[in-house]
Amino acid sequence: MKKIFPGYYRPTEEDFSNLWNSCLFVLDANVLLNLYRYSQETSNELIQILKQISDRLWVPHQAALEYQKNRLPIIAKQLEVYDEIQDLVEDSKIKFKNKLDSLGKHPYIKADNLTKIMQKACTAIKKNLKKLKQGHPDLLQHDNLRDALDTLLADKLGLPYSQEKLNEIYNLGNQRYKQEIPPGYEDKKKEGIEKYGDLILWFQIIDKAKETNKPIILVTDDRKEDWWTRLKGKTIGPKSELVDEMLSKAGVSFYLYQTDPFMENAQKFLEKQVNKKAINEVREIRERDEEGERVIKEATMASIKFSDALKPISDKLSSLTLSDDTLKAIQAIKSLDLNLKKGIERTEDSNLSTDFVPKEIDGKDRRKEN
Questions:
Q1: Which helix (H) or strand (E) holds 257?
Q2: What b/e sequence results for 227-244 when a residue is b if at least 16 CB atoms lie within 10 Å of its CB, and e otherwise?
Q3: What is the 3-state secondary structure (H, E, C) of 137-183?
Q4: Phi, psi angles (nearest 5°) of residue 252
Q5: pLDDT tens, residue by residue, 5-19
Q6: Spatial contact of 62 and 204, defined as CB atoms under 8 Å apart
């Protein structure tokens, strides 16, 4: 059974040991981009792990291209967070004061004292934010992280496909996506050729596996269902189709890790001591991202249900003669539904995570250059 259906079997402990000792480690763009979201200590910890396996490290051209294209938006978003928190503080202060004013006199609550406490706290936060922003490294002028990656990956990048090869993949992608053959079909709603990014990445990995005849471990922070097998919210492993396709086309085994499990297993199989705080930080950021995606998915489902509920009402009303006011009300409801859908689509189409808020605001410069 296992020889015929390898994708449905989790590797044994011995299989994992052999895989880690002989594989080619492939990095996805999101792993490189997430370095900008971690504290300096955690980024350095991950880079040290990658240095230890540098002789077996490789980045597909598609992943490197996506890193370069999305690096500046990531950096810009980090800087915007300071202003976003500043606005949040101001908004909270106004809401706090308005609520106290609306309560009027209270026998035990001294509104003036509470207002002073709130103002003092807001002033302290603003002062802290200003200090943190001033100490934030100007990565637009000097990106020390990219410098480190340039050195690490100097001779470890894949070559681009020809336009003829890309056109072939686009055509093949249309067929695969209709049949929901992974990876990439979760991106089929994206505009233009952007929908084929994961498929290009996948074919480049397969070609590299053929060339080197080495098993593959792909480290990715992509969480879409066209990469992972999941059961009741628990990640089981890579899609069985991916394991099978890699074996049939390249004759080697394949496995997936997200960054925090990769760091944990590096301790075990590479015999490298990894800072537990770094692993926890990476895990916390991943879990926040997953929670954000869950909320978006639930909002999408709510929008679909809302639209479905409106349809029979709309169909029924279309056969009646209605007043202008009633027609305006119906149009307002339809507009509400349309705007909700557009807002969700914009969020879903974004290639970048929406969670860039620093883990803590403690007065320390978490990203200050040495």
A1: strand 254-257
A2: bbbeeeeeeebbbbebbb
A3: CCCCCCCHHHHHHHHHCCCCECCCCCHHHHHHHHHHHHHHHHCCCCC
A4: -130, 165
A5: 888 888 999 999 999
A6: yes
Residues 3, 366: Cα–Cα separation, whole Å: 49
CA angle, residues 233, 234, 237, in degrees to nearest 5 = 130
Q: Report helix, strand or coil for 217.
A: strand
Beta bridge pairs of residue 255: 217
Q: Going by DSSP bridges, is the β-strand pair 228-231/216-219 parallel, antiparallel, or unpaired?
A: unpaired
pTM more than 0.70? yes
Residue 305: predicted pLDDT:
65
Q: What is the pLDDT of residues 22-79, one digit of tens each?
A: 999 999 999 999 999 999 999 999 999 999 999 999 999 999 999 999 999 998 888 8
Residue 238's DSSP bridge partners are: 228
For residues 354 and 78, the answer to whether their CB atoms sit within 8 Å is: no
Which parts of 7-107 are beta strand (E)?
Answer: 24-27, 57-58
Give the confidence band of 292 by pLDDT, cuts at 50, 70, 90.
Answer: confident
Least confident of 123-137, 250-264, 325-339: 325-339
Which amino acid would we find at residue 355? D
**Does residue 354 contact residue 347 with C-beta atoms inside 8 Å?**
yes
pLDDT score recorded for residue 293: 75
Quote the CA–CA distance of 211 and 230 in Å, as a whole number. 31
Q: What is the reported pLDDT for 137?
A: 75
Q: Alpha carbon of 177 to those of 46, 102, 147, 201, 228: distances in Å?
A: 34, 56, 37, 15, 16
Token reading at 116: 């002073």
Helix H or strand E segment including 293: helix 276-317
Between the alpha carbon of residue 217 and those of residues 28, 56, 249, the distances in Å are 11, 10, 16
